[in-house]
Predict the 3D structure of the following.
Amino acid sequence: MSKPLKIDFVSDVSCPWCIIGLRGLETALERVGDLVEPEIHFQPFELNPAMPAEGQDIAEHITQKYGSTPEQQAANGAMIRERAAGVGFTMASRQGSRIYNTFDAHRLLHWAGIEGRQQELKHALFTAYFTDGLSPGDRAVLVDAAGKAELDPTAAAEVLASNRYADEVRAAERDWQAKGISSVPAVIVNDKYLISGGQPPEAFEQAIRSIAAES
């Protein structure tokens, strides 16, 4: 009999390790088969909540935030692209790209959760930003992503044109921060077990099997 598994995936759509972690988790769930019955909820986390609408050059941003050199950034970028490719995700070179505000993306994801297409929209948003180099702060990009996730684009545009779900997203962000989440991805299983970072499928699989055995 499958064990129910509640999974809260706390992440931001501008976080490269979040798509690596998500693909690692999804691959692990495929491997364990009917051992568990997962229910994934995508929870909001903004890496840069004060980011203006026009965004910022990513190299400039990383230098300011982490103090890394161009050489360190290039090596880290190559490593991230390799890790992403290893879990079947194409991440384009980030040279010359920008980082953007993601609050509207999180509002749309909240709505997608109500509509039952949250995971599909999450993937569409990751692809738009990391593969296609589009802005997750651009509402036209968000509406297009909604369509690709088989959501109603007109309804998506209406959500974005309003302030709908803003309070819910901010409340969720505060709640996860209050629970000690300060970096993403953070994967919380059954409200009890924390798996941090963009782990490979093997790490997620081991954790899932161990949690299922304890349940």
